[in-house]
Amino acid sequence: MGIDIVHKKDRKVHRKEPKSQNVYLRLLVKLYRFLSRRTTGGNFNQVILKRLFMSRQNRPALSLARIVRQMKSRPDKTVVVVGTVTDDNRIFEVPKLKICALRVTEGARTRIIKAGGTIITFEQLAVESPLGQNTVLLQGRRTAREANRHFGAPGLPKTHAKPFVRLRSRNHEMARGRRKSRAYKA
């Protein structure tokens, strides 16, 4: 008798290209594929390439306030965001910034330019700093999504998962896992 090979781990689940058919995104992928293959010294271009492949859920927006806070100690570096930069009304003064992002919202764009800052594209970044010199790679928070609050088992002790019910009371989500008569008690 022969030994059967286990095939359940055959499929490698990581993206080799973006799902999107956007022409401009695909051109960026071509450019950064070339740069990551040809340049030595750091993996800046590999990181950019990997993030270009990501789903929108994994490329969360980054607010202007967070950028300002991160750049206080690094005044003359370029901010690189593989995603969207959004405006934040909670801050009043925006310093002079140089930002490279896939997309910048209208409000954020006007505030950055008004403060004397510049917004560049990834093609311009590839010309200016092909190895990522004088850049700071920033990302938005992936766990900021409302859906993340529901992860886990609500009602169990020591969990803070948000239940999918109208209100929290004795009558809501108090059966399975909360009493012996309903499967188990945690």
Core attributes:
186 residues, alpha/beta, five-stranded parallel β-sheet, 5 helices
Q: How many strand segments? A: 5
What is the N-to-C order of secondary-structure elements (H for helix, E for strand)? HHEHEEHEHE
- Contiguous helical run count: 5
Taken as a percent bin, the fraction of beta residues is: 5-15%
Helix share, percent? 25-40%
Please state the structural category.
alpha/beta
N/C terminus separation: 46 Å
The outline comes out as: flat
Spatial extent as radius of gyration:
23 Å
Overall residue-averaged pLDDT value: 92
Largest sheet descriptor: 5 strands, parallel
Ranges with pLDDT <50 over ≥5 residues?
A: none
Architecture overview:
Strands 1, 2, 3, 4 and 5 form a 5-stranded parallel sheet that branches. This protein is flat. By secondary structure, the chain is α/β, with parallel strands linked by helices. The model has no long low-confidence stretch (mean pLDDT 92). Helix content is 27%, strand content 13%. The protein has helices at residues 23-38, 44-53, 64-71, 106-114, 122-128, and strands at 62-63, 78-86, 98-104, 118-120, 135-138. Helix 4 (106-114) links the parallel strand 3 and strand 4. Helix 1 runs antiparallel to helix 2. It starts with 22 loop residues before the first helix and ends in a 48-residue tail after the last strand.
SSE diagram, text form:
Layout (H helix, E strand, L loop, with lengths): L22 H16 L5 H10 L8 E2 H8 L6 E9 L11 E7 L1 H9 L3 E3 L1 H7 L6 E4 L48
Parallel strand pairs: 1-2, 2-3, 2-5, 3-4
Helix pairs in contact: 1-2
